[in-house]
Amino acid sequence: MAYKNQYAILTKGLTKQYGQALAVNGLDLSIEPGQFYGLLGPNGAGKSTTIHMLTTMTSASSGEAWIAGREVKRYPVQTRALVGLVFQDSALDRMMTVDENLQFAAALYNLNKQQAEQRIAELLSVFGLEKKRHQKLVALSGGQRRAVDIARGVLHKPQVLFLDEPTIGLDLPNRRSIWRFIEQLRKDEGMTVFLTTHYLEEAEACDHVDFIQKGQLQKGGAPKKLIKNLAAYMLEIDCADTEVVSQQMRPQFGEPLWEDQHLTYRIQDKETDFYQLQKTLGNAVNAMQWRKPNLNDVYLWTVCPPDYGVVT
Ligand SMILES: Nc1ncnc2c1ncn2[C@@H]1O[C@H](COP(=O)(O)OP(=O)(O)OP(=O)(O)O)[C@@H](O)[C@H]1O
Ligand SMILES: [Mg+2]
């Protein structure tokens, strides 16, 4: 069993069934210590369910999981000490102060008074929240509340931190601040981070991302590599006549992603002459632009490729 210790997270055939529905179907994951891992997928794909199984919030229907070499099912108490969890929905009491919320969590983690005091002070300093310590959460901004949620999740210095959509609903400056804090924690404490997010530009910082859809894992890779492998350019065309454009494009460029009058093509050939192409398509085109691909493109082409149908 020694090899299991090599991984921060290891799962074999991890499955969760709710009635007839398979929320997570035979998941095999192997995530190394210190990795920044992202699990990406549409609403209802099984991301939170996966996190809940790995953090003992819910039991697996079948399959196995290990956190830092300990089997989750056999050692739930040890698992809870090893993991930190920032929930998709806040776990804080808004009518309590920042300090009260964190002291309460510290007691749950069995930190003694001195340890709690030291750790809370340390984290409030990282998050720049020292002055808010004795304010009720209702008086804080969304970004500050989220920071307290993260502080709560890492109070006990977990080896593996699960972040379930940590920046959902936050504006851009707050999202950036939250990521600075998380980066700081990764640097200071070497935590393995397991992230789910719908903001794919945030997931570009991951070492590795996989995709999940209807409970089924689709293996991904390093974001930079996935982006490079997807295409040299993405070509977006606003069509006056989609039939004409798609017919003319098909022999050389295949099928596009199709959204009403807007078609997106993957262009593999770096030397493609877009000006010439624009001339050839002529009046069938209203507007045309080409750009470098990003992780959002990888996601769309993985989760709903051209033959997949309508995005739900
Ligand atoms: N307690 C439950 N009882 C029954 N079905 C559930 C339960 N929790 C989740 N599900 C179902 O399991 C599936 C996966 O849900 P899950 O919350 O894991 O998705 P998700 O990927 O986290 O989605 P989102 O991006 O919306 O957060 C969904 O079809 C959901 O309806
Ligand atoms: Mg979820």
Automatic annotation (TrEMBL):
Protein keywords: ATP-binding, Nodulation, Nucleotide-binding, Transport
Sample GO molecular function, one term: ATP binding
Highest taxon of source: Bacteria
UniProt domain ABC transporter: residue ranges: 9-239
A Pfam family matched in the record: ABC_tran
Family statement: Belongs to the ABC transporter superfamily.
Protein name: Daunorubicin resistance ABC transporter ATP-binding subunit
Organism lineage string: Bacteria, Pseudomonadati, Pseudomonadota, Gammaproteobacteria, Thiotrichales
